[in-house]
Design a protein that fits this description.
The chain is of the alpha+beta class. About 25% of the residues lie in helices and about 30% in strands. Strands 1, 4, 5, 6, 7, 8 and 9 form a 7-stranded antiparallel β-sheet that branches. A two-stranded antiparallel sheet has the order 2-3.
Protein backbone atom coordinates (compact mmCIF):
# COMPACT_ATOMS: atom_id res chain seq x y z
CA UNK A 1 0.00 0.00 0.00
CA UNK A 2 1.50 3.31 -1.08
CA UNK A 3 1.73 6.30 1.22
CA UNK A 4 0.36 9.50 -0.29
CA UNK A 5 0.43 12.99 1.09
CA UNK A 6 -2.36 15.21 2.27
CA UNK A 7 -2.94 18.22 0.03
CA UNK A 8 -3.92 20.74 2.68
CA UNK A 9 -4.45 23.48 0.11
CA UNK A 10 -7.07 21.39 -1.72
CA UNK A 11 -8.84 20.62 1.56
CA UNK A 12 -8.92 24.30 2.58
CA UNK A 13 -10.02 25.47 -0.87
CA UNK A 14 -12.87 22.95 -0.81
CA UNK A 15 -13.87 24.10 2.69
CA UNK A 16 -13.89 27.74 1.65
CA UNK A 17 -15.94 26.98 -1.47
CA UNK A 18 -18.63 24.89 0.26
CA UNK A 19 -18.70 26.25 3.85
CA UNK A 20 -21.83 28.30 3.28
CA UNK A 21 -23.41 26.01 0.68
CA UNK A 22 -23.84 22.35 -0.13
CA UNK A 23 -22.11 20.31 -2.80
CA UNK A 24 -24.97 18.62 -4.69
CA UNK A 25 -22.89 15.41 -4.97
CA UNK A 26 -23.46 14.82 -1.24
CA UNK A 27 -26.63 14.54 0.80
CA UNK A 28 -27.25 17.33 3.32
CA UNK A 29 -27.55 15.69 6.74
CA UNK A 30 -28.41 18.94 8.56
CA UNK A 31 -31.92 17.72 9.40
CA UNK A 32 -30.68 14.28 10.47
CA UNK A 33 -28.32 15.05 13.32
CA UNK A 34 -26.00 17.47 11.54
CA UNK A 35 -23.82 17.85 8.49
CA UNK A 36 -20.52 18.77 10.16
CA UNK A 37 -18.72 15.40 9.90
CA UNK A 38 -20.02 14.95 6.34
CA UNK A 39 -18.56 18.34 5.42
CA UNK A 40 -15.25 17.57 7.18
CA UNK A 41 -15.04 14.23 5.34
CA UNK A 42 -15.64 15.98 2.02
CA UNK A 43 -12.79 18.40 2.80
CA UNK A 44 -10.44 15.59 3.83
CA UNK A 45 -11.35 13.63 0.70
CA UNK A 46 -10.54 16.67 -1.41
CA UNK A 47 -7.07 16.61 0.16
CA UNK A 48 -6.38 12.87 -0.23
CA UNK A 49 -8.54 11.65 -3.13
CA UNK A 50 -8.94 8.10 -1.77
CA UNK A 51 -11.58 6.34 0.29
CA UNK A 52 -11.64 3.12 2.27
CA UNK A 53 -14.57 0.96 1.13
CA UNK A 54 -14.40 -1.52 3.99
CA UNK A 55 -18.00 -2.05 5.17
CA UNK A 56 -18.76 -0.72 8.65
CA UNK A 57 -15.20 0.30 9.57
CA UNK A 58 -14.07 2.05 6.38
CA UNK A 59 -14.45 5.67 5.33
CA UNK A 60 -16.44 6.26 2.17
CA UNK A 61 -19.45 7.93 0.58
CA UNK A 62 -21.28 6.66 -2.49
CA UNK A 63 -24.76 7.96 -1.64
CA UNK A 64 -26.88 8.94 1.37
CA UNK A 65 -27.80 5.27 1.71
CA UNK A 66 -24.36 3.83 0.93
CA UNK A 67 -21.76 5.39 3.19
CA UNK A 68 -19.68 4.44 6.18
CA UNK A 69 -20.58 5.62 9.70
CA UNK A 70 -17.20 7.38 9.82
CA UNK A 71 -18.11 9.62 6.88
CA UNK A 72 -20.99 11.32 8.70
CA UNK A 73 -20.52 10.55 12.41
CA UNK A 74 -18.03 12.62 14.41
CA UNK A 75 -16.92 9.94 16.86
CA UNK A 76 -16.64 7.37 14.06
CA UNK A 77 -14.61 9.82 11.98
CA UNK A 78 -12.27 10.28 14.94
CA UNK A 79 -11.98 6.50 15.44
CA UNK A 80 -11.27 5.95 11.75
CA UNK A 81 -8.66 8.68 11.41
CA UNK A 82 -6.77 7.76 14.59
CA UNK A 83 -6.95 3.99 14.03
CA UNK A 84 -6.69 3.59 10.26
CA UNK A 85 -3.83 1.35 9.11
CA UNK A 86 -5.31 0.63 5.67
CA UNK A 87 -6.45 2.69 2.65
CA UNK A 88 -7.62 6.25 3.17
CA UNK A 89 -6.58 9.14 5.41
CA UNK A 90 -5.08 8.75 8.85
CA UNK A 91 -4.16 11.14 11.61
CA UNK A 92 -3.26 11.59 15.23
CA UNK A 93 -4.81 13.42 18.11
CA UNK A 94 -2.47 16.26 18.97
CA UNK A 95 -2.34 19.53 20.83
CA UNK A 96 -3.12 22.98 19.52
CA UNK A 97 0.53 23.73 18.68
CA UNK A 98 0.61 21.07 15.91
CA UNK A 99 -2.65 21.99 14.21
CA UNK A 100 -2.41 23.04 10.55
CA UNK A 101 -4.82 24.19 7.84
CA UNK A 102 -6.87 21.22 6.66
CA UNK A 103 -6.83 19.55 10.08
CA UNK A 104 -9.92 18.75 12.12
CA UNK A 105 -11.11 20.04 15.49
CA UNK A 106 -13.90 18.39 17.44
CA UNK A 107 -15.71 20.09 20.30
CA UNK A 108 -18.35 19.29 22.88
CA UNK A 109 -20.57 22.32 23.31
CA UNK A 110 -23.59 21.27 25.35
CA UNK A 111 -23.03 17.52 25.72
CA UNK A 112 -20.25 15.67 27.51
CA UNK A 113 -19.23 13.91 24.26
CA UNK A 114 -17.71 15.49 21.16
CA UNK A 115 -20.50 16.30 18.72
CA UNK A 116 -19.34 19.12 16.44
CA UNK A 117 -16.58 18.80 13.83
CA UNK A 118 -14.72 21.81 12.42
CA UNK A 119 -12.22 22.19 9.57
CA UNK A 120 -9.18 24.40 10.15
CA UNK A 121 -8.72 27.10 7.51
CA UNK A 122 -5.91 29.12 9.09
CA UNK A 123 -3.86 28.91 12.27
CA UNK A 124 -1.83 32.10 12.46
CA UNK A 125 1.90 31.99 13.12
CA UNK A 126 1.31 30.49 16.57
CA UNK A 127 -2.01 28.59 16.78
CA UNK A 128 -4.30 29.88 19.53
CA UNK A 129 -8.11 29.87 19.83
CA UNK A 130 -8.02 33.50 18.63
CA UNK A 131 -5.84 32.86 15.56
CA UNK A 132 -7.41 29.59 14.40
CA UNK A 133 -10.11 30.19 11.78
CA UNK A 134 -12.54 27.41 10.95
CA UNK A 135 -15.22 26.37 8.49
CA UNK A 136 -18.14 24.15 9.44
CA UNK A 137 -21.57 22.88 8.48
CA UNK A 138 -24.66 22.42 10.68
CA UNK A 139 -23.85 25.79 12.21
CA UNK A 140 -22.53 27.06 8.87
CA UNK A 141 -19.36 29.07 9.36
CA UNK A 142 -16.41 30.37 7.41
CA UNK A 143 -13.39 32.20 8.87
CA UNK A 144 -14.89 31.88 12.36
CA UNK A 145 -12.46 32.18 15.24
CA UNK A 146 -12.26 29.07 17.35
CA UNK A 147 -12.43 31.29 20.44
CA UNK A 148 -16.03 32.26 19.58
CA UNK A 149 -17.23 28.75 20.47
CA UNK A 150 -18.29 28.09 24.06
CA UNK A 151 -17.15 24.48 24.38
CA UNK A 152 -16.75 22.09 27.30
CA UNK A 153 -14.09 19.94 25.65
CA UNK A 154 -11.90 20.16 22.57
CA UNK A 155 -9.62 17.82 20.65
CA UNK A 156 -7.34 18.43 17.69
CA UNK A 157 -6.82 15.90 14.88
CA UNK A 158 -3.76 16.30 12.69
CA UNK A 159 -4.13 14.59 9.30
CA UNK A 160 -0.80 12.86 8.65
CA UNK A 161 -1.50 11.59 5.13
CA UNK A 162 -3.24 8.73 3.39
CA UNK A 163 -2.64 5.32 1.90
CA UNK A 164 -3.74 4.10 -1.50
Amino acid sequence: MAEIGYNRQNAVEYARHWALGRNPRYYNFSGLGGDCANFASQCIHSGVGVMNYKPLFGWYYLSADDRSPSWTGGRYLYNFLTGNKEAGPYGTETDISRIEPGDIIQIAIYQPEYHHTLVVLETGEIPTPDTILIAAHSYDSIDRQLSTYDYRQIRFLHIEGARN
